[in-house]
Amino acid sequence: MMANRSEDVPLVSVCVISYNHEKFIEAALDGILRQQVAFNVQLVISDDCSSDRTAQIIQKMSGSLGSKMDVEVYYQSQNLGVIANFIFALKKCTGKYIAICEGDDFWTDAEKLASQAVLLEENPELAGSFHRVAVHYEGKPYLTGEYGSAVAPILATKDLISEKSLMHTSSLFFRREALVFPNWYGTMLSGDFALASILSAYGPFKRIDRCMSTYRVHDTGITNSDAYNRDNVSLKIRILTHLNVFHGFRYSSEFESVIQELQAKKERKPGVVKSIRRRLKIGLLFKRVTYWLQRV
Are 42 and 93 in contact (CB under 8 A)? Predict the structure, then answer.
């Protein structure tokens, strides 16, 4: 039985974090505004002291959003950093379930929240759900992709022990009671890589086999930042090591296997890395030429 929108306690909280997303935030909020639901929704937005017009756009759209859901907007007076701001926003969520849409991504299916809420209401053993996500490369239309289509329909803790995130953040929908913040979580540069694993301690995730959001890849995104890419492999090794402890060493062999694979990548000769990068650039050039030739 689905909860009614008139109830005071929201069934779903939507968590949005933003920082200098003036080009993208309107699309993110519009995707949330278009959701067709029959239950109460809380929208929590935390802008991390943006230096562009992101805050003004949020303020302008708050009225339309407030007509459909309970809106709480927080404008940070100083920059907290992506993880601290993420934790801040998540802690403000009071719904039974939480969905995430970062300010540079957007939802494309008006029934996303309703579909995921029904799935979890009917399956109390699940910690959460996810779905396929389109990948949009800003300014590079010759690149396309999809996130989550090649993974198993059910993902438990052991399945999520990987070199990369198997579920994109914009697709995550989970029980608030499954959410905990280990002490080390706030010190990591990337939050999504660890979040799904932490939540999986409650139960597995189930995929809805529909593409319901878009992940935007752009030059100012966290995964394209110098700090993130400077030693991305070491960051993942630290996170996996912490997660092994978090899960009580029940999956030590699986964690150690992935850590060893990452360690081997770190130790590869620079010449090999440069060779791979050269091949990648050739591959990108081929995709670019093919894209434009198809449009001649």
Answer: yes
* Contact (Cβ atoms closer than 8 angstroms) between residue 99 and residue 172: yes
As a whole number of angstroms, the distance between CA 229 and CA 211 comes to 28
Predicted TM-score of the model (pTM) = 0.86
In this model, does residue 228 exceed pLDDT 80?
Answer: no
* Whole-number pLDDT of residue 3: 40
Give pLDDT tens digits for 124-148.
999 999 999 999 887 666 667 888 8
pLDDT at 292: 44
> How far apart are the C-alpha atoms of 3 and 215, rounded to whole Å?
29
Asked whether 158 and 139 are in contact (CB, 8 A), the reply is: no
Query: pLDDT tens digit string along 31-74?
Result: 999 999 999 999 999 999 999 999 999 999 999 999 999 999 99
